[in-house]
Structures are given as C-alpha cells and as structure tokens.
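Annual report, structural modelling task.

Input specification for the pyridoxal-5'-phosphate complex:
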Amino acid sequence: MEKKIPYRHYLTEEQLPRQWYNLRADMKELPDPLRNPATGEALKEEDLYPIFCKELAHQEMDNTTRYVDIPEGIMEIYKQYRPAPLVRAYNLEKALGTPAEIYYKFEGNNTSGSHKLNSAIPQAYYAKKQGLKALTTETGAGQWGSALSEACSYFDMPLTVYMVKVSYEQKPFRRTLMQTFNAEVIPSPSMTTQVGKKILADNPNCTGSLGTAISEAVEKAVTNEGSRYVLGSVLNQVLLHQSIIGLEAYKSMEILGVYPDVVIGCAGGGSNLGGLIAPFMRDKITGVHPNTEFIAVEPASCPSLTRGKYAYDFCDTGKICPLAKMYTLGCEYIPSASHAGGLRYHGMSPIISKLYHDGYMKAVAVEQTKVFEAAKMFAKYETILPAPESSHAIRVAIDEALKCKETGEKKTILFGLTGTGFFDMFAYDKFIKGEMSDYIPTDEELEASFAKLPQIEEK
Ligand SMILES: *Cc1c(COP(=O)(O)O)cnc(C)c1O
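The model returned the following structure:
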C-alpha cells in the first residue's frame, strides 16, 4: 500500500539541520572570482574586510568547506520560526487535475514574512560578534529590510535601511514594521549620500532601484567608522545561509520517501533558489540523481538570466562594490516598476549564473499578469496569500503540472514558496481592478544597457 503523505510535514527540533551546506565545494567548476574594478585583480579575503565583517568575508571566499556549523546563537533564533513546513499541494493538484505531485517549502511563517530572515540572522550575529557599531542595507520590496530589522533588533545592532522609493510609497506598513524593530528607514535615492544626490540631480523623479539603494547603503557604511554594509541576496555567503531551506526540504522528502523530478524557484538575486536547490544540485553534480531538472523563474520585466549577458559587472549602480561575473542586464539598468519588487535586480548570484551557464539549470521569464492569475488560484486552493515574487515559482509549477496532465507523466514537483503577500495588497488591488500591465523591455533598451558594461582586463 502506498504511504500516505501528510498535507504538511514538519521536522522535529532534533531533526533540524545544524550545518549549512556550501555547494561550491561540490561544483565541478567554480564561479569566477570577485574582482577589483580599478585593477582587474581577483580579490582576496582580506580585501573584503572593509565591506563585510570577517566571518562573512571568509564564507564569501570559502570554496572548499562543504558543511559549515551553524553557531548556537543562531540556532536559538532559527528555532523560533523553523522548521518551515514542506507542504503537499493536494488541493491545488486536484483543482488542476494533474497526475503530478506538487510540494512546496513555505518560508513565510515569520513576522518579516519571507526566507530572508535565514540570512539576516547570521549577518547580524557575526556583526555583533565582531563588535561592529552599526549596519546599513538596502531593501527593494521591503522584505530584506524587515528581516534584517528583526534580526538587528534581537542583537541590539543599530540599522539604517535605504528603501527603494517606489516601494517606500507603495508599502508604508513595511516601513512601519522596520521602525517597530528600531531601524532607520530612508527612501532611495536620497539626499543623504553623494550617489543619491547625483542621481536626483539627473532625474528628480527617479523611483529608485535596488542597485541605487545598495550604492547608498554602501556609501553610508564606508563613510562611518565601525559600520558595515550587509546584502540580502546575490552573495555566496547568503546562498550558504539559505541552504537551510533546501536541507530541511531534503530531509523531509527523505523521511517521506519522495524525491523531486523538478525543482523550481523564483530568482531575484538568486538566494532562495540557490538555497532550495543546494542539496538536490549536489546530487545532480555528484551523479546520485543526475536527471533532476532545475528551473529559475524571473519576471519578463527584469530578465537577467534569459536575456542578460554573462559578464563582469558591478553589483550596484554606484559602482562601489566589487565586480562579479554574473548574468546581468547592466548595473545601470532600471527595470519597470513591476510589483515583484524583490525580483527587480539587474544581476544574478554568481553561483546560479555559473550553474545556468554550464547547463545545470533552465530559466524562464514570466509576465506579471500571468503570475497574479497563478497567485489567485493558489490562494484559493492552498489558503496562503503568496508574495508576488513567490508567485513566479507558482506560475511555473502550475505550468509544469499542466504539462504532466497532457503527457500523463507523474512527476514530483518541488517549488519554493518564499513568502506571504500581506504587504503586497497594492499589487493585488491593481491586478483585481485590471490595471496591471506587462512591461517587457525591448532588445534596443537592453543593448543600450549592455554597452555600458565595464570593460576589464581579467588578471
Ligand atoms: C527577496 C525575495 C525574493 C527574491 O530574492 P532571492 O534572493 O532571489 O531569493 C523572492 N521572494 C520573496 C518573498 C522575497 O522577499
């Protein structure tokens, strides 16, 4: 008799992973190194100390340690909101009439509302441990800012958040949430930095972008003694922390006796996707499960993997951060004001970029009205209001399940449900009123942005 899979599977406290997994240790070829924009030299760990705290600089550059112990001080807070459930989408499957089995890992069960808290906690923890005085960061949709505010508040670490102006205006309650956790929140671009002033001088109505907000946050950190900038995605260290998502999902599936044929995640900077896929990608690379498919889903309005260039580029518009080799639309590219704020980033994690470039995974770009149709259907059958970002993954999971309906294949689909949409009611409202549009950049627009990519000599 077939084993009955529960609607929701939770690991016990004893079963929680105690180590993060570093996929780089198993990759056949590593992502290209970070480089100094001025000299083209590959950066060393010490070169990163002025920007990141030491432990995180180490994690950023460590390509060999396979498993990294999670410090007890971090486990203490992880246990407040983890494990995240692995949910079998029985009701959605039934509604779709698909023979596929659909599972999702739900990361929206904490106050900040997304997976971002998984990396915010270690970043605040290591900063505190190093005796730093303050942190700065940027936030697009507000999820990262909320998560870091929550983590910094726990460790009594002062925090300044530069929030992309369009979200600051669309999501006032995100700001209030961050302020509740004692963060200072500034709409970006702002007059508090040189970068911000310059951008506002060129375009006073600029609604901001993640890249610009990063530049402001970096400038604020480097011009204030004892301050550091922390980033919620893209970086290797963030993917390392987010591996907790994949490790838990992996363990739950092992206990349930299932294994995914397809793993799907939305991709902004690539952190939830990198974290979710980590142990499954390990199995693919090492030949244990060579046929698993991986799909990154991005917005058609900001298609860095599907239409970007694989090149060295700045992680930020202000060109202060090191250069990373990644799929990018160009660091000056400002995507249209889509409602998936967390996916409006010009680049992509170097790890994800490398895996994609080497053919280990696929990418698809989807339009936001199609995404919200999927979100609405998901809310109805699974009773969770999904974040617009997460709904990109839902869209493609549904499409994959519908393909199975045609072919009769009984695939096992796993996707990352990264967060809740409670702070995204403005976006849902637009969708319900039929006022949402799908902006897709033209090739000319992208070419104009590619033309500005830095020309560096790799040394
Ligand atoms: C930030 C965010 C994302 C995208 O970020 P990644 O680094 O690509 O994971 C996706 N979903 C939610 C809910 C987010 O807040």
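Residues 298 and 365 are 5 Å apart (CA to CA).
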